[in-house]
Each structure stands twice: as C-alpha cells, then as structure tokens.
Amino acid sequence: MSHSHRNFRVGGSSHKCVMQLINPKLEWDIALHGLLFWASMGFLMPVGIIFVKMSALDVNQARRKALFYVHAFLQGVSVVIATAGAILSLRSFENSFNNHHQRIGLVLYVAIWIQAIVGLLRPRTGAKRRTTWYLVHWILGTAISLLGVINIYSGIIAYRVKTSKGTWLWSILFTAQVSLIAFLYLFIDKWVHLQEQNIPPSSSSSGSDSRSELPVVASDSGLGGAVIVHGETQKQLMVLEPCSKRNALRNLFD
C-alpha cells in the first residue's frame, strides 16, 4: 500500500496528513471483482429467469424446451463466473467479513451453489416431490436475485469509498438495467392476456346463435321425415334420424 504525505496548517501549527492510496493492481482487482459479480448475479441470472418464465407460457413444445435449456445454460455460466469472482476476492482482498457487503456476498456464494444442486435434482413433472422442489427452487432463486441486486449496489458504494472515484454513472446504468428486467418480468405475465384481447368471438358460437334465430318449418312425414330450415340467404334440408322408443317417450312427456 502506497502513501502520500501532505502538510497543512491548523490554528498556526503544522500537521502532517497521511493519505492512503490504493495500489493500481488492487484497484484493478476490485473493479474486476465487481464486473464478475455484476455479470453473474446482476445480468445472467435475471435474464435466465426471464427465459424460464417465457418457456412456461409457450404452447410450442420445441420452443419451451429450447427456452428451458437457455435458462439452464445461463444459470450454469453465472455460477462459474460467481465462483471466479469469489476466488479473486479470497486471493486479493482482506476478508474479515466485518461489513454487510462481504457478509451478503458469502451468503450469496453458498446460496447459488445450493440452487445449482437443487436445479440438477429436478424431479420429473408429475412426481410427488415436484411441488416441494418447485417451491424451494423458486424461493431460492427469488432471494438470490434480490440479494444480488442489493449487494451490487453496496459494492458500488464500497468502490467509491475505497477509490474516491465517482460511481454515479454505474449506479444509473445498473438501475436502468434492473428496471428493464423487472418490466419484462411483469410484462410476460400480461402477454397472454394482451393476445386474448385481439381474438374475435368464435365462429362456432356465433353460428349456433344465428341458427337458433332462424325460422324452422317441419314436414308432416313423421319421425323419418325432413326439416326445412329457411334462412335469409339459403334453404337447408336436414334429414331426421329415427329415435328410439325410450327417447320418443321421454320427448313426449318433457
């Protein structure tokens, strides 16, 4: 760690102020650590959640499977990147865990590996343990995503305090990204509902309604005769099939 010495006067006396300056190598490691965890928990994991949410709403089986595999791939890559960031932290930083950023980071690192193992142990659809598995997987994923966003913000603050550099631009860009992902997550829930707004009434129901309003004139030829249906634009001849005795009696007393 390098130091810079400056003299200044207070109340007529001279004082020496010792300012600690960060080693350029350490500053680079801090920036790389933040970049790795942003890529892992701030970008790939939330995007992976978006893909699996899309797969749940897609009716095409091939697309559903493809979206699920994209989700699994992104989550796997994010775990690898987070592991690289954790190794860098252990090798380059003082890990006394006396602040919230380091404590949350430790919890997150353990949680993402538990989540990865839970994902690999996914039961098949219809299995008894499927509901329990889904609940655990969803709770862990949601908690990791929220804590990851919080820890990235605390990391930006820690970087500003450590290096005395402005970080307002990174805060704005990350806030915009989180807002966009949150919007997409909520929009997917409404996508099916939006599509249903443009579907006209079914032709079958409208056709049955129109037929019920048409006048009907029956012939006098008995049960084996015909029914003439008069419409505005056409005339249909519908042949009646003989009914069984039971149906005939039931119709008589209805």
From TrEMBL:
GO terms for cellular component: membrane. The chain crosses the membrane at residues 30-54, 66-90, 102-121, 133-156, 168-188. The keyword Heme applies. Residues 1-195 form the Cytochrome b561 domain. The keyword Transport applies. Its cofactor is heme b. SMART domains: B561 (SM00665). CDD domains: Cyt_b561_FRRS1_like. It is found in: Membrane. Keywords: Electron transport, Heme, Iron, Membrane, Metal-binding, Transmembrane, Transmembrane helix, Transport. It is a multi-pass membrane protein. GO terms for molecular function: heme binding; metal ion binding; transmembrane monodehydroascorbate reductase activity. This is Cytochrome b561 domain-containing protein. It comes from Trapa incisa. The lineage of its organism: Eukaryota, Viridiplantae, Streptophyta, Embryophyta, Tracheophyta.
